[in-house]
Amino acid sequence: MTNRIAPLRNGSRSRCIALPAPQPRIRLIRESLVRESLAVAAILLALLMLAAPLQAIETAREGRIVVSGSGTVERAPDYANIHVSVMTRAETVVEAVDANNDAVEAALARLEARGIARDDIETSGFRVFETPDHRRNDDALRETPGFTATHQLRIKTREIDDVGALAGDILGLEGMTFQGLGFALDDDTQAQDEARRRAVADATRQAQVLAEAAGVSLGRLMLVGDAAASAISPRSEGMMMARMDAASAVPIVPPASLGYEASVRMEWAIAD
User: Fold this and answer.
1) Is residue 118 part of a domain?
2) Quick one: 100 exposed, middle or buried, by C-beta within 10 A (0-12, 13-18, 19+)?
3) pTM across the whole model
4) 71 lies in the same domain as 203
5) Is 151 helix (H, G, I), strand (E, B) or coil?
6) What are the start-end ranges of the H helices in the chain?
7) Which CATH number fits the domain that encloses residue 244?
8) Using one digit for the tens of pLDDT, what is the confidence trace for 189-236?
9) Domain tally, the chain
């Protein structure tokens, strides 16, 4: 620390007085206070900048009509899928698979003889697993082969009205187990799109009714979202089957139509 010397004059005599220099500690305190003030000001400015968009969003959302619409459409099925399986058992995996291959080839030949084209038959699944133990009524273990192979087949037919007779014929063929059936369209894109159009029309109708009831007018469309479409499962009674003897017709009632549904969320601004 250095002192400043200030000369003073008193008559003919002069003297010097030492003045203390500014303290560095005081300067540091002042600089710290300035920095803290600037930091607080920056935080306040940032909060104001964040609050402005939020307020703008809240204001923008005021005066809206929000509705959810739904639409359904029905189409006659184009074809039916019949699901069957061929199962074989053997002591080893290789023997079970080889036996299954032979059984499937025989099943395919019988299906072709029934008038089903090979192109309408395809594999839907295949697996080999260790055969679980079985017990007899006296709780003694029953001898069973070591491995089981199952081959699932999907048979496609466009004879919707005769699907029950075809299913009965398949049940009468040796070596195949009937697992179920389903109905479908060749292309369900158009059906789903029509369901979406109906959902939008339903939402628009609701918005117009609400606007009229509230004494306002619909403004600009602000949002269209969640336009999902999916198939509606056929009624269970269309799949019902009764017990029957081999080769007898299965009393299946095909569904007259397949349903598709869609939903949509829409928002309109209220006109000034």
Assistant:
1) yes
2) buried
3) 0.60
4) yes
5) strand
6) 24-61, 93-113, 163-172, 189-214
7) 3.30.110.170
8) 999 999 999 999 999 999 999 999 999 999 999 999 877 888 886 643
9) 3
